Amino acid sequence: MISLTLFLLLLASAWSDNSTLPTEYHITIVPEFSDLTFTSETRITIVVQEAVSRLTLNSRGLEIQDPKVYNSAAEEITGVGFTRDTENETIEITFASDLEEDGIYDLVFQASGTINENYDGFYAAKYTKTVSGQKQERTILLANLKYYKARQIFPCFDDLTHLSTYTLTLVRPNDYISVSNTAKTSTADYDTNRSKDVFAPTDPIPPYELSFAVIDFVEEEFDGTTVYSVAKEDTQYVGELSSQVAQKFQELYPVKINKIHQIVVPDNTLVTNVVDNIGLIIYKESAVVYNEIRESVDDKQEIAKLVALSVIKQYQRESFEWWPNYWAKIGTLVSYQYEVLDQLHPTWRLHEQFVTEELLSLLEDDVDGRDISVVLPENQTPDVFTKSQLLKSFSFVRMFSHFPSPADILEDETNAAALSWIENKGYPLVTVTRTFNEVDNNITFVQGNLVLRSLPVNIVFENQEGDSNNFDFVLDRSEIMSNYRDYISSSWFTVNLERLGYYRVNYGTPNWRNLARFLMNSRNDIDTISPLNRAVLIEDAFYFNHMDRLPVTLYLELILYLKRETDFFPIYAFIKTANRIKSLLYLTSSAQTKFMTFATRLVEHLYENIGTSLNSTESHIDTLSRTKILTWMCSFGYAKCQEEMHALLSSGGSTHPDLQELVFCGGMRRGTLENFLFLLDQHMQRGKKRILRSMACTSDTEILRYYITAVVNESAIVHLKEHDRVDVFMAVLEGSDLGVEVALNFAKQYLEQILIKFTQEDIERMFIALSRKLISDPHQQTINAIIECLTDEQKVQYGDLFRTVTNTINNNKKWRSSNIGTIETWLDANEITTVAPGGENTTTTVTANNSTTTSTTTTPSPGGGAADLRISYTLFVVFLLTCIFSSTQI
Ligand SMILES: *[C@@H]1O[C@H](CO)[C@@H](O)[C@H](O)[C@H]1NC(C)=O
Ligand SMILES: *[C@@H]1O[C@H](CO)[C@@H](O)[C@H](O)[C@H]1NC(C)=O
Ligand SMILES: *[C@@H]1O[C@H](CO)[C@@H](O)[C@H](O)[C@H]1NC(C)=O
Ligand SMILES: *[C@@H]1O[C@H](CO)[C@@H](O)[C@H](O)[C@H]1NC(C)=O
Ligand SMILES: *[C@@H]1O[C@H](CO)[C@@H](O)[C@H](O)[C@H]1NC(C)=O
Ligand SMILES: *[C@@H]1O[C@H](CO)[C@@H](O)[C@H](O)[C@H]1NC(C)=O
Ligand SMILES: *[C@@H]1O[C@H](CO)[C@@H](O)[C@H](O)[C@H]1NC(C)=O
Ligand SMILES: *[C@@H]1O[C@H](CO)[C@@H](O)[C@H](O)[C@H]1NC(C)=O
Ligand SMILES: *[C@@H]1O[C@H](CO)[C@@H](O)[C@H](O)[C@H]1NC(C)=O
């Protein structure tokens, strides 16, 4: 559990020009819906710090009349000159005589401009509303001024660090409402059809935090928040949750969150999932509406995380000037997000989910040659921060928060311990070994990297009382040895509990073996090692094996205990490693089949335990684990699973959202074109990613090939939204072995479109994921052919990426040559005993080579023949057209 002492951040002042400070803005905005233009009147109060003869403000795309300047006695200053510099987006006001030091002046501007339709700053967006059964096209106006967009509406000191109060007046049609950062204080008629709303002054904020909307929505009151939406459909969850989060956060920390206005807008009216400003949060509908008959527990968690973080960011008011060590600030906000949600929903075990899901992906990506830096480049705004950077920032804060005084590290930009982490790439690999006799218990910790970091370490021995949640010492040399005499009789120890430190740990063979024996022995309580620590052990064991630093047999011995496991997290960690091994064993059908049988046998006891239907008394994690574990068992050829799911899918009835991925993906393994089209139709109605993922579970090459071209082809019949494209590529790649070939050929054939269509970051993600699955010389040759097709410029741009890809393929090939034989021999030699769930160890003994999965549909089947494929393709197109036609009627 994370517990951070709240640290309030001082406002660092680094203004580029300190001669004048704006303190107050009074702005009136009059938008015209008819021609999408607006006028604005702005009064800026400034305090002059030192006598000046000119002032520079920002403006972009505005027609501005000559400004008027008044002194504090409200007398107009004469001799004012005015010039505009469109290139530099500035305007300059010059004075015949200097403005006096300590003088207070008002600058008054009349400006006009256009409301754009490109989601840029102040924009208009259309959506379809149903009014008494009739569909109407309606227009709403939204303002998102992040960053440097305030100057598009009114002249201002658009400097990010200039904090002022803003008092906004907005004119709106009578049948619309207006919303801004603060509460409305008055409303008056503007003309016959329009009203004028005045909002309370904001606290001092930078210009980009100002936000407003003119909408024809309805409102719903919750404790501490108002939610505006088109029709109050499924918005109750956002309202209730945001109110609970604000309450809990204020209970835990001495902060005050003012009333929040939240607008849920139709998807096509907002580019990102959320725009969060102080007092006003705008969400995209699909990112937050919740209805239990449509959304899964997974969706619910994602909504909760998004809403919680947006609400907690309300408190960032204390810390606008946070760019220098942005990672510490944003990482801290994320740690509050997890802490608050963990308290509101302890049974969701979100923190454990973070360690086994997000943190794990991060560790995988952070060694693959992608430099995930948490440093926000100079002169960049936080919107350039990627999700990986955000998660890495949180991982650092999570680590530092377990030091004795975290605030020292997080607040001090020059702290050496922090710098040793943020200035270096990747993360350390630590090896811990033990030598002992009757008097000594010597444990040696080695950080095996060239760069040394201040590495926080904790260690727990078998018979140690209690669970230490803080670090025992800091390893800042390459090696430290300690004598732990008190624990001389312990057979095992674990280091870096719950992966609090951002690093991996390898042990000597005896410790791995003792851990495996301990977990295996039914007299021992496996919870002596917490579920999360068991998950970390499994994951690290495979990682070090793949790095050629641990024999695969140690990994296999460790996972044997899983037949005693019932907790989701260790099994989830295992599933991830098993998927990697299955891909690595690709094209060696006997070893792969044996391994798949073995792996499913290990967790077979859960199939009946979890059940294939929902149980009204089950926990959140039970529901989540059903999807993940059973979907995986189907993918590993577990015959019973595939049969049941195919029957359910083909029955065509409605499927509960929490069973959809299981039934849809599991069923698609044996599914037909008809099943695929059924899913496509489901996706068009609901737009859920899990349906897109399930479609990639097909075992039909032709369908898969057609499906993946939709990633680049805008006019393909399977029409994908922009933000779904990379996910579909990943789904095909991860869906089956067949998908690997399809994805690789797609990457080669459509390289040109891929390079045009995607960002460098997306391209890197796609190729790195692909490379993890490539294992043969022909694979490498295809990659070489891809490299050959690049222009010289692209060869430079993607040089690092393709070096990493080639490296990964080489490592995979190396792993295969040294591990496949060993795995097969080991599997042949080890019998798997399934323990009946009740604890009664009545046994069905199965030898590892008793293959029941010969019918697995994940192996590419040469069957069919060209004629069949042609027929299926024609049918496919016919079906698709019918399908599109029928779904547009809905
Ligand atoms: C503005 O003030 C800050 C802090 O008072 C100072 O560090 C900075 O150098 C000043 N900038 C100028 C241009 O005087
Ligand atoms: C824009 O600013 C630069 C640097 O201050 C200056 O050299 C240039 O002349 C400016 N452009 C115009 C059109 O004044
Ligand atoms: C108010 O609306 C009516 C009916 O749409 C229109 O005829 C009239 O011109 C509008 N008045 C103003 C001031 O826009
Ligand atoms: C433990 O370390 C001490 C100090 O280096 C050494 O004297 C002793 O022999 C070591 N004991 C074992 C069992 O390695
Ligand atoms: C539902 O789950 C509970 C606890 O997990 C179990 O005791 C009960 O038998 C289950 N009910 C059904 C109908 O499966
Ligand atoms: C994209 O899809 C359309 C419709 O299926 C097809 O006619 C077109 O040839 C495809 N374009 C490419 C580049 O594959
Ligand atoms: C069940 O397992 C326990 C502990 O491993 C063992 O002592 C016992 O003999 C086993 N019972 C049967 C029926 O195999
Ligand atoms: C297991 O496989 C080995 C070699 O592949 C074979 O000799 C043996 O008969 C098999 N055992 C069973 C029970 O099928
Ligand atoms: C093992 O294989 C034999 C022969 O194919 C089969 O009869 C038996 O049911 C299999 N055992 C299990 C548990 O699948």
UniProtKB/TrEMBL annotation:
Pfam families the UniProt entry points to:
ERAP1_C, Peptidase_M1, Peptidase_M1_N
Q: Give start-end ranges for the coiled-coil region(s).
A: none
| Keyword set includes Signal | yes
Biological-process GO terms, alphabetical: peptide catabolic process; proteolysis
Give UniProt keywords alphabetically: Signal
List all Low complexity biased stretches: 838-861
GO MF annotations, alphabetized: metalloaminopeptidase activity; peptide binding; zinc ion binding
**UniProt GO cellular component terms:** cytoplasm; extracellular space; membrane
State the protein's name: Aminopeptidase
User: What family does the Swiss-Prot or TrEMBL record give for this protein?
Assistant: Belongs to the peptidase M1 family.
User: Which SUPFAM superfamilies does the entry mention?
Assistant: Leukotriene A4 hydrolase N-terminal domain, Metalloproteases ('zincins'), catalytic domain
Region forming the signal peptide: 1-16
User: What's the domain of life for this entry?
Assistant: Eukaryota
* Record InterPro entries: Aminopeptidase_N-like_N (IPR045357), Aminopeptidase_N-like_N_sf (IPR042097), ERAP1-like_C_dom (IPR024571), Peptidase_M1_aminopeptidases (IPR050344), Peptidase_M1_dom (IPR014782), Peptidase_M4/M1_CTD_sf (IPR027268)
**Which residue range or ranges hold the Peptidase M1 membrane alanine aminopeptidase domain?**
245-405
ERAP1-like C-terminal domain span? 492-785
